[in-house]
Amino acid sequence: MHLSQMKENDTAVIKKIEQGSDFARRFFDMGFVEGNKVKCLNIGLKGTPIAYLICGSKIALRKKDASRIRVIM
Q1: Given 21, 27, 49, 72, which residue has the most CB atoms within 10 angstroms?
Q2: What digits encode the pLDDT tens for the residues 6-61?
Q3: How far is CA 11 from CA 16, 19, 25, in A?
C-alpha cells in the first residue's frame, strides 16, 4: 500500500521509499525513514495535499509524492 492510499486517522509504518525519486533525500530529511510510524491527519478537498504526522511534525505532501512511499498498515 502507498502512503497516498491511507485514509484520515489511519496509522502505518514506512516500508520503503522509491530510491529513483528526486525527493528521496528530502523525504529522509523530513523523517520519512523505513520503520517510522506515520499518521494521516487530513486530506485536501481535491485529494491533495495530504497532511501527515511523523516524528511529532505535521507535514503536507502532494498525492503524487506520497505515492512514492510504501507503508504497512
Answers
A1: 27
A2: 999 999 999 998 876 567 788 888 888 899 999 999 999 998 999 999 999 999 99
A3: 16, 23, 23
pTM for the complete prediction?
Answer: 0.86
Q: Per the structure block, which three cell numbers stand in for 40?
A: 494521516
Q: Is 71 exposed, middle or buried (0-12, 13-18, 19+ CB in 10 A)?
A: buried
pLDDT at res. 15: 94
Distance CA 49, CA 68 (A): 14
d(CA 51, CA 58): 7
Closest by Cα among 37, 66, 41 to 54:
37
Report phi then psi at 32, rounded to 5. -80, 85
